[in-house]
Amino acid sequence: MSWTDERIATLKTMWEAGQTASQIAEALGGVSRNAVIGKAHRLELQARPSPVKPNDPEAKAAAAAEASASAAAAAPEPVATPEPVEVEAPKPAPVAEPVVAAAKPVAPVEPESVAEEPEDDEDDDEDEDEAAPAVVAPVRAPQPILRSVGPGGFLRQAPGEQQPPSTPAPPRRLVPAKPSAEMANKTSLLELNDRICKWPLGHPGEPDFHFCGKAVNPGFPYCVDHCGHAYQAQLPRRDRRPTPPLPFGGPRPR
DNA sequence: CCCTGATTCGC
DNA sequence: GCGAATCAGG
User: Å from A19 (CA) to C3 (C1')?
Assistant: First the structure.
């Protein structure tokens, strides 16, 4: 498999959405997790909290110098470091769980259809083109956004808990228009934002996979209807439904 | 063990 | 440029 534009776009999107390399690899198909990571680095996509990342430049330099034993000739070590600098930023571990993955790249689209955005480019905020069919914002999400609810695990989230999106007006990017009639009115991965329902419909990778796309129940990632599915009171074990509904329709035949 | 991402290095 | 092998933390 080669890195086509579509595949690269999917990689970028999913990587930035906080999907793990494994998930991305599986969604893309035909590539390994390593391939995804390698490609991501080559694309200079970067800086996802890594388990193994050394973030102390000093230590890193030292380690490097040590490792390359006789390599470097002159490496004047900056020994002067009066203040221990706290570089570490507290990073919330990605909670990416059964996160929804993969917008299957659809048919290539003709360039002219996404040519420009002529109108008044001034849209300093929430005046999103709600009804606008084609072009929407990027999935720039600081943290993994999508959570689903497993049969036993109920992810509760108080409305106040959710960070109000600190990026109200991310740089607007153009995404390909819906190339086919089937995809019209379907909300794709590329169109998710903070105020539309992210409830997945269908299965990732399938042609008609899309998201609910209705307006969210404020403070939640889903619309009111789907919040009803996602957040349920914990029932006593014996009273629980024998087959708790899975958000994605359960395991898929492989 | 499993997972994760980073890095290296032969191709 | 690509990705398997390897490393290393959780």
Answer: 20
